[in-house]
Design brief:
Layout (H helix, E strand, L loop, with lengths): L4 H12 L5 H14 L7 H15 L4 E4 L5 H7 L8 E5 L2 H13 L6 E5 L2 H4 L3 H5 L6 E4 L6 H10 L8 E4 L2 H5 L1 H9 L3 E9 L6 E9 L2
Parallel strand pairs: 1-2, 1-4, 2-3, 4-5
Antiparallel strand pairs: 5-7, 6-7
Helix pairs in contact: 1-2, 1-5, 3-4, 8-10
The structure holds ligand 76T and magnesium ion.
The site of magnesium ion has 5 residues, from loops.
Length: about 210
């Protein structure tokens, strides 16, 4: 049967990237998406913004919602201090299977815990299952209608502390209007929009960075 787009992306990484070299994996995926097939990775333009926020926060505890093929997982993990790990949640098993291989190809498997399941199911279990009290940095890139319920779940589960940083992809395209309205109007967050473009296109999109004020 015909291969899937994530499988073709993995083949492109294995063909064009250097094992153990995260930057070459990032470049190989961007090349594939610009020249062969569009895919919903955060991409190079928004990825650079992601890099700068991760570098600025220098987090000890990191959560990513929506692994897809592991592109942003690799971007984040390559910047973490030695000994720091990130947890990434992926609901789709086929995506998770490809992501594991791409993360391993980059040599970052020891810095990543990939959990197969949904945010709603897993967020309430994180404290006990992973021994985490609060997250320093959270990257939201899963179903856009889940951003708002999940940020409320983070609050309810006591997973945010004064200064926790949430960075949300696609707040314009496909969009997360209810999430934007919440973080921009809540007195408990300081929010800032980073304008960019939808990955590999000229369409408007951007990232919303929200700092929890406690
Ligand atoms: O929709 C998007 N991504 C999310 C997504 C999408 C599909 C499947 C999953 C399954 N993974 C999943 C689900 C639920 C979950 N709960 N916890 C973890 C978890 C994980 C996740 C998306 C779309 C576009 C886009 C498409 C088309 C277009 F024209 C313009 C733009 C661009 C993006 O950058 C995007 O990020
Ligand atoms: Mg996205």
């Amino acid at each position: 049967t015909r291969s899937t787009r994530p499988q073709r992306m993995l083949k492109a990484v294995q063909k064009n990237a250097t094992k153990g070299n995260p930057q070459s994996v990032i470049s190989a995926i961007d090349y594939f998406c610009k020249n062969s097939e569009w895919a919903m990775n955060v991409g190079d333009e928004k990825g650079s913004i992601l890099d700068s926020v991760v570098t600025e926060v220098n987090p000890s505890t990191v959560l990513e919602l929506g692994t897809y093929c592991g592109y942003s997982t690799v971007r984040i993990a390559r910047l973490l201090s030695p000994g720091t790990k990130l947890i990434t949640l992926e609901f789709n098993p086929a995506y998770a299977a490809v992501a594991r291989q791409i993360i391993a190809y980059a040599g970052l498997q020891d810095k990543v815990t990939l959990v197969e399941g949904s945010s709603g199911e897993w967020i309430p279990q994180i404290k006990e299952r992973f021994g985490i009290t609060t997250f320093d940095f959270i990257f939201l890139d899963h179903w856009k209608d889940q951003y708002l319920p999940d940020i409320k779940l983070f609050e309810e589960c006591g997973l945010l502390r004064k200064g926790s940083v949430l960075l949300a992809d696609n707040v314009i395209c496909p969009g997360a209007p209810d999430y934007l309205e919440y973080v921009r109007n809540s007195p408990r967050y300081e929010s800032r929009y980073y304008p960019a473009h939808l990955e590999y296109t000229k369409l408007e999109d951007g990232l919303e960075k929200s700092v929890f004020l406690g």
